[in-house]
TrEMBL record:
PANTHER family documented for this protein: GLUCOKINASE, ROK (REPRESSOR, ORF, KINASE) FAMILY
InterPro entries, sorted: ATPase_NBD (IPR043129), ROK (IPR000600), ROK_cs (IPR049874), WH-like_DNA-bd_sf (IPR036388), WH_DNA-bd_sf (IPR036390)
Pfam families, alphabetized: ROK
Name this protein carries in UniProt: Sugar kinase
Origin: domain of life: Bacteria
Single GO MF annotation: kinase activity
């Protein structure tokens, strides 16, 4: 058991994280049921070049079977030799690595942005593109721009061919079918064949998931949750969602909409949400909701910091005139109303998470998304409510932390899912 501690203001909390191989039914059990070629390729992805002897030890495979599998993957150009390994007391072994030609495309579509990375087999970026985008423009124009950026990457020499594509979208997804399903902020995307069209356009398999799920996968692969099998990843941005990571895997639910906490009602008399219901968490605290409340405070003069920013925005013709970032900057300057707006939002998020903690008893909660940049004021309020409202047994060793990957959590997770898909198909 891994033990440590972190300090939260005046409180020091003990942190105990279970190693993956100590979780009943978790990552270790799954690893032993996976096909040998999947385990082999994932190990080379996550660990880098290894000798044949090390691979045989780590995978617990008879050497003849390992050598036969390596020959098959070399022939398929998934694996290549990578020099001589350090001596282990006898004949020096040759290192094996993922083939340098492997390329995966990772796409993170947000409500107002598109981020794309082309990565190699180790998931290291070889090309990056990020630009503003409006998901409400619909799937045809949005995916056309994605294809244009990937064509640019190819023209720039980032890849000759793609082995798989992973994409996250800001709405509910049928993971099985590879299509968004009734996404509240994505008009025109309902049942749009995203996976089919990307696969056909680029001649490779594709996988589609909800944006917060891919962020959870990314954080598990290369972020603060790297050694945690059971955690919640909460995205607080244009919308609010929760990636549920249990037993080393994302839990998506029967139809793929598990974790859609933004549409849990927290105030029966609250504003109408984009989903059509009243008083949803997302309608009360999200990027748009915070900007709405901040604009009201600026116009009324209740917040001097926001009133000043509104006046400057009107003079320059800025649209929208007030954003969530203005609230964060005002809070940093000590504006009481800005601080209150952030704390109110943190209290609402924390109350929903307290219920989830009592229900699922996670090892960690990770806060990400655009509003995570509001920083300690938001995080402290979420922590306070979660620790106060949940049972001590569930929170005594529960860290609530900010994402380490930040804006790269989504593309990292999309790259992991793309590589997993390619590796699974490498045995067919």
């Amino acid at each position: 058991m891994l033990r440590g501690s972190y300090c939260d203001g005046h409180n020091t909390r003990l942190l105990r994280l279970r190693e993956p191989d100590q979780t009943p039914g978790g990552a270790l059990m799954r690893a032993h049921t996976e096909a040998p070629h999947v385990r082999l390729l994932r190990l080379l992805r996550d660990e880098g070049p290894l000798s044949r002897a090390e691979l045989a030890d780590r995978l617990e495979l008879p050497r003849p079977r390992l050598l036969a599998e390596l020959d098959r993957q070399v022939a398929a150009e998934n694996v290549a030799e990578a020099g001589i390994a350090a001596s282990r007391g006898g004949r020096r072994s040759t290192l094996v690595e993922l083939h340098p030609r492997l390329r995966f495309a990772a796409i993170d579509l947000g409500a107002s942005s598109v981020d794309i990375e082309v990565v190699n087999g180790r998931l290291e970026p070889v090309a990056r593109y990020a630009e503003p985008a409006d998901i409400r423009n619909g799937p045809k124009s949005t995916l056309q721009r994605v294809n244009e950026l990937l064509a640019k990457a190819r023209a720039d020499g980032a890849f000759d061919r793609l082995d798989a594509i992973g994409i996250g979208v800001p709405g509910p997804v049928s993971f099985r079918d590879g299509v968004p399903v009734s996404p509240p902020i994505m008009p025109g995307w309902d049942r749009y064949p995203v996976r089919e069209l990307l696969a056909r356009e680029h001649g490779c398999p594709a996988v589609v998931d909800n944006d917060v799920n891919i962020m959870a996968v990314g954080e598990r692969h290369g972020g603060v949750a790297h050694s945690v099998d059971d955690f919640l990843f909460v995205k607080v941005g244009t919308g609010i969602g929760c990636g549920i990571h249990l037993g080393g895997d994302v839990y998506r639910g029967v139809d793929g909409c598990a974790g859609d906490i933004g549409h849990i009602q927290v105030d029966a008399h609250g504003p109408v949400c984009s989903c059509g219901n009243t008083g949803c968490l997302e309608a009360l605290f999200s990027g748009g909701a915070l900007a709405r409340d901040a604009l009201s405070a600026a116009r009324s003069g209740a917040s001097p910091a926001l009133a000043e920013r509104l006046a400057a925005a009107v003079r320059s013709g800025q649209s929208p005139p007030i954003t969530a970032r203005d609230v964060g900057e005002g809070a940093a300057e000590g504006d009481v109303v800005c601080i209150r707006l952030i704390r109110d939002g943190g209290r609402r998020v924390g109350s929903v998470l307290a219920t989830l903690v009592s229900f699922s008893n996670p090892s960690m909660i990770v806060i990400g998304g655009g509003l995570a940049q509001l920083g300690h004021v938001l995080l402290a309020e979420i922590r306070s409510v979660v620790y106060r409202r949940s049972l001590p047994l569930a929170t005594g060793n529960l860290p609530v932390v900010l994402s380490e990957l930040g804006s790269r959590a989504g593309v990292t997770g999309a790259a992991v899912l793309a590589s997993d898909l390619a590796f699974e198909q490498a045995g067919s």
